[in-house]
Write a structure and sequence with these properties.
Blueprint (H helix, E strand, L loop, with lengths): L3 H7 L4 H7 L12 E2 L2 H9 L8 E5 L5 H8 L4 E6 L2 H6 L1 H6 L4 E5 L7 H4 L4 E6 L5 H9 L7 E7 H8 L9 H9 E9 L4 E2 L6 E8 L9 H13 L5 H4 L12 H8 L12 H13 L2
Parallel strand pairs: 2-3, 2-5, 3-4, 5-6
Antiparallel strand pairs: 1-8, 6-9, 7-9
Helix pairs in contact: 3-4, 11-14, 13-14
The protein binds S-adenosylmethionine.
Length: about 290
């Protein structure tokens, strides 16, 4: 049996009409590639699991296709942050259909504090604007324990870097940071033709769940600095690449740092696993 919300959503015009009426010609500068197939947006929203009682943040609702899919999962609330003022008016019928569940905020998502904005339990679902996807992800991963889940669409190449295993060509900073704090899983793959206009690349939805924090953990900033140094010169051995950390101020050299952390100084960054990076970061914080 369909709910009053489903009935109200069913009565909304197709997304192509919304786009035509509000003249939402896609802007490349805002990473606008819209999803118009409501079966697909419902599938993406469902890939986040059971959202009952969860407060959802959506970044970049655009004409509202994914927002409609999220609302169909009957979460506690949806707060959608959109930078393009043209979309705000286009989303008003959806706000009305939502019966108080949907709130639109006109803002730059890079400047929004998702934790302050939404009560717990909170989750993020978004078809991200590709030009700001990585900085947004890193900002959320820093506080991943505050989120029930992140379900985010990226260019396939970025999803591959997030889920890469040690030793593979894609293994780097993004994989280490993401897999250190969470379990990222690829849940939906989409070809370019799924979007209007179609981008040049394939896309992948990745679902992130926080990992339990066992044992001593370094600060997020230390892991960022360490991985930046180690992968800044990814072909070089650690004894060379770690020099850029300015270790002498900590009374360390790359060799002593590696020795204390139980890591070979002749190894290359891509050969280390995540526990090895954690040991290096903890050693760095302890100053040797
Ligand atoms: N969610 C819609 C969909 O799936 O069809 C649109 C996704 S489109 C890839 C990205 C959306 O993010 C656009 O609506 C764009 O205007 C918006 N956007 C771009 N940069 C943004 C920012 N910094 N803050 C908030 N929204 C942004």
């Amino acid at each position: 049996m369909s709910s009053a919300l489903d009935t109200a959503l069913d009565a909304l015009p197709p997304l192509r009409e919304v786009i035509a009426e509000h003249e939402l010609a896609a802007r490349k500068s805002l990473g606008q590639n819209f999803l118009l197939d409501l079966n697909l947006t419902a599938k993406i929203a469902r890939s986040a699991g059971d959202l009952t009682d969860v407060n959802i943040l959506e970044v970049g609702p655009g004409p509202g296709g994914l927002t409609r899919g999220i609302l169909r999962t009957a979460p506690a609330s949806v707060t959608a942050i959109e930078k393009d003022s043209r979309c705000i008016a286009a989303l008003q019928p959806l706000v009305e259909a939502s019966g108080g569940r949907l709130k639109i905020v006109e803002a730059d998502a890079l400047e929004i504090d998702a934790i302050a904005l939404l009560p717990a339990p909170r989750a993020i679902i978004a078809n991200l604007p590709y030009n700001v996807a990585t900085p947004l992800l890193l900002g959320w991963l820093r506080h991943i324990q505050e989120f029930r889940s992140l379900t985010l669409m990226f260019q396939r190449e970025v999803a591959e870097r997030i889920t890469a295993r040690p030793g593979s060509k894609d293994f780097g900073r993004l994989a280490i940071i993401a897999q250190w704090v969470s379990r990222p899983t690829r849940v939906v793959e989409l070809p370019p033709q799924a979007f209007t206009p179609p981008p040049k690349v394939h896309s992948t939805v990745v679902d992130f769940r926080a990992l339990p924090r066992d044992g001593a953990q370094p600060k997020f900033e230390t892991m960022e600095r360490l991985t930046a140094a180690a992968f800044g010169q990814r072909r070089k051995m650690l004894r060379q690449s770690l020099k850029s950390l300015g270790l002498s101020t900590y009374g360390l050299t790359p060799e002593t740092l590696c020795a204390t952390a139980g890591v070979e100084p002749t190894a290359r960054a891509e050969e280390l696993d995540i526990p090895a990076f954690v040991r290096l970061a903890l050693t760095l914080e302890a100053g040797g």
